[in-house]
Amino acid sequence: MQTLRFNKTSKLIKTDEFSSVFNFRKRIAAKFLAIHYQPNAPHHARLGLVVGKKVAKLAVHRNYMRRVLRELFRVRQHEINPIDLVVRVQNKFDRSDFDLIKQEFNTLITKINHRTQVNTQLNVSLNAQAIDTSH
Fold this sequence. Notes:
Blueprint: H1 15-24, E1 27-29, E2 33-39, E3 46-50, H2 59-76, E4 83-89, H3 98-134
Parallel strand pairs: 3-4
Antiparallel strand pairs: 1-2, 2-4
């Protein structure tokens, strides 16, 4: 049975993990959020968050944005392809923008799932062709 817990295995923690996602250079963005993503080896989605001081000066506001994004990921984590996500906040949002943020996050995740699903299918078909030609 799948749980909706957001545990330690679902988090990007180390600097190297963040760096590898940024260096992979796959990114999708909207008004409030930019999501960098990379396929991963553990077969589940993992989340990293970046909320800079340039976006929101007060820690209270940055922490609110992190909580909202963590919750949105927690609820949908089993629907997301096995990828590492680094969500970067581009513009400050607050409680009045919650519905917009939820819609934007879900739209971006759907697009990422589609992109990574296409790539996964392409890699599988290329591997199958390579095996066929070698025999």
